[in-house]
Write a structure and sequence with these properties.
The protein is α+β, with helices and mostly antiparallel strands. The chain is 45% helix and 8% strand. The chain has 14 helices and 8 strands. Strands 4-8-7-6 form a 4-stranded antiparallel beta sheet. Helix 4 crosses helix 14, helix 5 packs across helix 14 and helix 6 packs parallel to helix 11. The longest helix is centred in the C-terminal third of the chain and has 20 residues. The radius of gyration is 21 Å and the shape is globular.
């Protein structure tokens, strides 16, 4: 989960291919859906991460800023293991693939059919989320389909290991992952979770919607009165949390996500493209729907096919999807999957929530 700060955003256009003291007693187990063998992992070598000066600086910062107990932090981080598989995975993300390969990973018959079944099974929760937040059920379903195959693939890496590995052994995004590690430790303190009991993706994303710790603390909601949001097992919390995330990031109910476009033959598309407007795109020769006002914020999105490039123009709701994941490929996959699931479900005689 990424959280860009500005409405105007910049995409890399992919034409070659394309996250008071701590409780040390009365620690409760994680929800059933996220218990794993993490706590049974072989312990790291003596001292491990806590022997490193940069980790000690991190610990000192959290003690001063968040009121953590230093001994608890050292004890917890001493159990963290460097995972080379995580470093290998983040070096080759799916988003490095060209669109025609990336799309097939997420927009396929298996995810469409499973999405229809998921929608039918959780129609009440999806309807409630759509009516309350204004985010279509089809988009919520598609997010969960892309993120975790509707909860089937939530990741098996200990979150503590993933975040610690990336925070201190992945320099390109060390600051981001140190922030997320801090958020994770705060989350464990708030909910009295054993920090080694949670598992997730190689980037430390958790639960069915694959929220990063900071996103969980900011946007996860509970469908019940009181208690903490459960994004692992409670489907009302899961669907509501995704819808709330989109709502807070500016989703426009009833608004378009993206529209097809064409670029005249011979026109050169720059390697990067900054968010602009429909009018500016038209002035540059981009051909698209006449029904869009010239001052509508937009972005030109080229998608690499096996032979040639397909163009789309992303609008506000496309931008909102990229708040979940910055990649324009991700946003297009979510959009495409949502349309296909809704269309296939309609053919089966189901009506979408009002």
């Amino acid at each position: 989960m990424i959280r860009p700060a500005h409405y105007l955003f910049t995409f890399l256009l992919i034409t070659t291919g394309c996250l008071i003291s701590a409780c040390t007693h009365n620690v409760k187990p994680a929800p059933a859906g996220l218990r794993a063998n993490a706590q049974r992992q072989t312990q790291p070598a003596t001292q491990g991460y806590t022997a490193r000066p940069d980790v000690q600086m991190f610990i000192t910062r959290l003690v001063q800023r968040d009121g953590f107990d230093k001994q608890w932090l050292e004890k917890t981080l001493a159990t963290a293991r460097r995972r080379d598989a995580i470093l290998a995975a983040i070096a080759k993300p799916y988003e490095s693939k060209p669109w025609y390969q990336y799309k097939s990973l997420f927009v396929n018959d298996a995810r469409i059919n499973a999405g229809i079944g998921f929608w039918d099974m959780h129609a009440q929760d999806l309807t409630k989320a759509q009516q309350h937040y204004g985010v279509p059920a089809s988009v919520i379903v598609a997010i969960l389909g892309v993120e975790s195959f509707y909860g089937r693939q939530k990741g098996g890496y200990p979150v503590l290991d993933a975040l610690t590995t990336l925070a201190f052994d992945y320099p390109p995004r060390a600051v981001f992952f140190q922030d997320e590690l801090e958020q994770y430790l705060l989350l464990c303190r708030e909910q009295s979770f054993d920090a080694r009991s949670l598992t997730g993706s190689y980037a430390g994303a958790m639960g069915v919607p694959q929220f990063m710790p900071d996103s969980y603390r900011q946007y996860a909601v509970t469908s019940d009165s009181g208690g903490h949001p459960d994004i692992w097992d409670n489907w009302g919390d899961i669907t509501g949390s995704v819808a709330n995330y989109f709502h807070i990031h500016g989703w426009q109910p009833g608004g378009l996500v993206a529209v097809p476009a064409a670029v005249p033959a011979g026109k050169t598309v720059p390697p990067t493209f900054t968010a602009t407007s429909i009018g500016a795109l038209r002035q540059q020769g981009v051909v698209l729907s006449a029904g869009l006002a010239g001052d509508t914020p937009a972005i030109l999105v080229p998608l690499q096919l096996e032979h040639g490039i397909q163009y789309w123009v992303g609008l506000n709701n496309f931008r909102v999807i990229t708040q979940y994941n910055r990649s324009p490929l991700y946003a297009m996959a979510v959009f495409d999957l949502s349309v296909r699931i809704a269309e296939a479900r309609a053919l089966e005689g189901h009506n979408a929530p009002p």
